[in-house]
Amino acid sequence: MKNQKLVLAKRPDANVSADIFRLEEEQLPALNNGQFLVRNLYLSVDPAMRGWVTDMPNYIPPVALGEVMRSFAVGKIVESKHAGFSTGEIVYGRFGWQELTISDGSDVERKVNPDDAPLSVNLHVLGMTGATAWFGLTEIGNPQAGETVVVSTAAGAVGSMVGQIAKARGCRTIGITGSDEKAERCLNQFGYDAVINYKTCKDLSVELAEYCPNGIDVYFDNVSGPISDAVVSLFNVGARMTVCGVIGISSEHLNGPRVARTLLVKRAKMQGFLIFDHMHRLAQAVEGLLPLYKTDKLKFSEEIYNGLDQAPIGLESLLAGTNQGKVLVKL
Amino acid sequence: MKNQKLVLAKRPDANVSADIFRLEEEQLPALNNGQFLVRNLYLSVDPAMRGWVTDMPNYIPPVALGEVMRSFAVGKIVESKHAGFSTGEIVYGRFGWQELTISDGSDVERKVNPDDAPLSVNLHVLGMTGATAWFGLTEIGNPQAGETVVVSTAAGAVGSMVGQIAKARGCRTIGITGSDEKAERCLNQFGYDAVINYKTCKDLSVELAEYCPNGIDVYFDNVSGPISDAVVSLFNVGARMTVCGVIGISSEHLNGPRVARTLLVKRAKMQGFLIFDHMHRLAQAVEGLLPLYKTDKLKFSEEIYNGLDQAPIGLESLLAGTNQGKVLVKL
Lengths: 331, 331
Prior knowledge:
Two copies of one chain form a homodimer. Chain A is α/β, with parallel strands linked by helices.
């Protein structure tokens, strides 16, 4: 059987552009015993991909040149020689940017119940995105009703989940985002109590202080850099900060105000979080997320691209921040 | 009855000098019901006092001008009209730099068993110092046998306890200190596996890497600043850092390398620790520390000054780093 796949053709320059990928066709071998064939239905496009295609030190090795682009996907098993996986089952896993994946089960994150939600939702609200928000917020941030929770990239796939989970727990939620369109979605779609457009606000610290009259108890950070400096300065005693992304550390912001004194005086915690340490517990996150999803407390938008060849375009959009919601590719 | 006390006469300039204190005499009133009189036997001199005498924002209000200097002390109850405290009992508490203290019990941290150890030891190994090391290391750092633990101000009152507790738990312990004399004590008295004099070493990062071939799992930090930058750069995945002091953040080092990327990539934790949040659990720390002390696993040195008027001199020595061991005043 023939497979179409997107492989990494070269390392990116400063910005990731679509031309670092190359579409290739290959002839798949017959299945061995213990293998099954997945026809991918939706592919994921994630901010982490920026790191995966560069060869800077990271939490996992970069995608090798010539290798299929690493990606989560939801697919349907179309043939099986594996006792644990049957034809017709839906699976969520690390299947890559390709039409077909031969799996031995080791790259499967979970079997999907197609009655729970539209299939694409398993790639975000009930997938890695939702699990990132769930574990990163509830286990490190541990927000309590009445506390103030600040989220950077508040309209993003992860950020919007964080804001909504915190809201569902009775917190005051403040979002920081980078466009008026996203700010509007934060308020009207994701239910933040207040939102700040850091690009157009006069003084982030002043506006934050205004919207957080009781200080900040929990900070779910996807950016670091000057935005986070402003948030950290308003920490309450016992504040908890999840470091989930550092996209705001540009070459001009490698240095910044030291946080140690604030952490000491506020007895605050700053902790890095990487979802890959926790994917083996995905079912636990889904257990927490599904009731929220089913009671309509987890709103989302999807930006769906059609066709494998559109995946790099989707990634460009995501990394440029022009996307509107979770970026997906429908095959 | 007459009491001699040291009051804060003025705020310090850049450095804390002995002349910011003034010796005063006062006539004490008779005890009310519910009060008792403590004759202080040993007064403590602590690094935190630098913060207490300045009016910069801090975790507790500064000592007011004209007020007796805040301090822990061990004393003997010499008169009591309090049902819970009897004449002859030894108590450890926040009794201030003075000969006599009228207490209602609210400033007592614990009653001391004089058979456990020499009385002065209750001011450090079995007092705030030991509790700082105990809770800050075991609860935030949570060191496991075989892990590498780095301690800054490794020969200090707290640092030396941290190193020894970690050693007793089977860790590899690396100390960072600022003089050859202290380095020698780290090795021969406190049992560190290796020690670095940051003032004379060629390149702290290089030497640290050499002494920590398996990276760094736990960092108990009393300084922040460039020393900590070097330590953080060697963090292992899952590293835990206790921020217990920030004496290395001088005006020239207010900014430094951002830690967020390291925390993220290493899924590491940085958490501020202040012993005053935990003093109500002092008995729990003593329960952990006493068996180590009694089996001679907690070595210490004392630098004892004689007479109330010498307390400011002791503080000068401590803040200049010229002290040899825990600074105490014997009355």
